[in-house]
């Protein structure tokens, strides 16, 4: 989230000194954050349509459920412990957590204890909106981030194993990363910039997707049978919902309804447009035909790339970020195909690579003339920011990759990570959920015995 001005700490104040006024809840800021929360929530069904359209028809429900279940599961765990682990600290801004608080939040807000709608949060994250509004806005990020991982392991991972993986990953990977960057943790302390989730959301999910796909293994008929998208209109509907919701994803990360939110929304639209146009041009030149899936992928690459930079760069910087990120993601998708690695829906080539490029380009294009709480990047006389951004990227890669590996290793002790071979053949929908997307593939309703 964007750095915010915060109430001054009252230290060494004598009786003759007038205390700084308490921050007041602003109705305009609160309204914008409530709208932004709804916009980001819409992104998860949007992702479900985007991913659902890319798989084969017999797996569409299972794929969409892998996104939709997050709205229920993380929606509960965030209330019970996730929010506290991510954001509870004992110090106010602009200070940062010391000792253990540099790496993980506390337990004071477990079960939303002392998280009220009557006052802002006591740390100073969002001083003009109710604490519960800030909490529920952050919940939307916690919901969609692990859902992104599902794109790498669709059509083969057991839904039971995925269920438990999400609980563990959101607790032990997402919450600490959110704390490092946005919760007064060590990455925020050294000056790493991540306006709305380049590292916390996209890099973490992207590299975790690679590890998960590698450990679970490829689909049994990967590189043997075609895996063409069964419903491209779903893909276009999905990217439309994602882009619409992304205005809350990035614009809401200003945590207020002022000029910074306007900057974030403008740069988001510009970067997405540049990403889509760049991808179409590349396909037209290199493959002779622009595709619908291609332009959707380009829009998504532009959105991912601008996410860490949205509140720190000028419009031209956003245009360049969208275009550069789209080029990198385009070639990453092609390289993944050449490697014959079954990251089914190209989660890492788009989200992992896009988040990485976006985070690095933030260190180049960021300027304090856009956001005084940010920093100047390489082009504005401060090469040290680029080094800090690279450090943040590397730290996120290592933590998310190792953590995902350990979580899946532990889960493998207690359950199978993937379904039986016969279930892959017949389809995940009828076997994992007892229903079908279109009611025509297996009209008998029979499923493979899992015992």
TrEMBL record:
Keyword Transport on entry: yes
Similarity remark: Belongs to the ammonia transporter channel (TC 1.A.11.2) family.
Gene3D superfamilies attached to this UniProt entry: Ammonium transporter AmtB like domains
Region (Disordered): 1-23
Keyword terms of this UniProt record: Ammonia transport, Membrane, Transmembrane, Transmembrane helix, Transport
Domain Ammonium transporter AmtB-like: 31-438
Coiled coil: none
Taxonomic placement: Bacteria, Bacillati, Cyanobacteriota, Cyanophyceae, Oscillatoriophycideae
NCBIfam families to which the protein is assigned, alphabetical: amt
Protein name: Ammonium transporter
Main location: membrane
Transmembrane segments: 31-51, 63-81, 134-154, 161-183, 195-216, 228-249, 255-280, 292-310, 316-335, 347-366, 386-411
PROSITE patterns: AMMONIUM_TRANSP
Pfam name, any one: Ammonium_transp
Protein localization: Cell membrane; Membrane
InterPro entries xrefs: Ammonium/urea_transptr, Ammonium_transpt, Ammonium_transpt_CS, NH4_transpt_AmtB-like_dom
Keyword Cell division set for record: no
UniProt topology in membrane: Multi-pass membrane protein
């Amino acid at each position: 989230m964007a750095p915010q001005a915060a109430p001054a700490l009252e230290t060494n104040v004598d009786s003759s000194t007038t205390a700084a006024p308490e921050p007041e809840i602003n109705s305009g800021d609160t309204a914008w954050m409530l709208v932004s929360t709804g916009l980001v929530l819409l992104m998860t069904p949007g992702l479900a349509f985007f991913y659902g359209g890319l798989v084969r028809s017999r797996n569409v429900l299972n794929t969409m459920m892998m996104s939709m279940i997050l709205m229920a599961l993380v929606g509960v765990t965030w209330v019970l412990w996730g929010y506290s682990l991510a954001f509870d600290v004992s110090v106010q801004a602009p200070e940062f957590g010391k000792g253990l608080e540099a790496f993980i939040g506390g337990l004071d807000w477990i079960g939303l204890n002392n998280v009220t709608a009557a006052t802002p949060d006591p740390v100073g994250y969002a001083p003009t909106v109710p604490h519960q509004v800030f909490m529920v806005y952050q919940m939307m990020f916690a919901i969609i981030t692990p859902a992104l991982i599902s794109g790498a392991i669709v059509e083969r991972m057991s839904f039971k194993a995925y269920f438990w993986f999400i609980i563990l990953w959101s607790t032990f990977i997402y919450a600490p990363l959110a704390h490092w960057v946005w919760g007064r943790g060590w990455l925020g302390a050294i000056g790493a910039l991540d306006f709305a989730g380049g590292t916390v959301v996209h890099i973490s999910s992207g590299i975790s997707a690679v590890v998960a796909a590698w450990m679970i293994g490829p689909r049994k008929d990967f590189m043997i049978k075609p895996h063409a998208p069964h419903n491209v209109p779903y893909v276009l509907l999905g990217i439309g919902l994602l882009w619409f919701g992304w205005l809350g994803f990035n614009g809401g990360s200003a945590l207020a309804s002022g000029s910074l939110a306007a900057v974030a929304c403008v740069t988001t639209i510009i970067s997405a447009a540049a990403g889509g146009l760049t991808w179409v041009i590349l396909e037209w030149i290199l493959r002779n035909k622009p595709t619908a899936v291609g332009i959707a992928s380009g829009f998504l690459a532009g959105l991912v790339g601008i996410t860490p930079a949205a509140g720190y760069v000028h419009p031209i910087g956003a245009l360049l970020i969208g275009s550069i990120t789209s080029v990198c993601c385009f070639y990453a998708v092609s390289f993944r195909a050449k490697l014959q690695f079954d990251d089914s829906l190209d989660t890492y080539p788009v989200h992992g690579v896009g988040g990485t490029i976006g985070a690095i380009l933030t260190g180049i294009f960021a300027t304090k003339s856009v956001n005084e709480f940010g920093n100047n990047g390489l082009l504005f006389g401060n090469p040290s920011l680029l080094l800090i951004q690279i450090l943040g990227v590397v730290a996120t890669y290592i933590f998310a990759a190792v953590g995902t590996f350990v979580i899946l290793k532990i889960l493998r002790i207690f359950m199978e990570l993937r379904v039986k071979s016969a279930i892959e053949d017949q389809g995940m929908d009828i076997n994992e959920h007892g229903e079908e997307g279109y009611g025509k593939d297996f009209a008998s309703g029979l499923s493979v015995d899992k015992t």
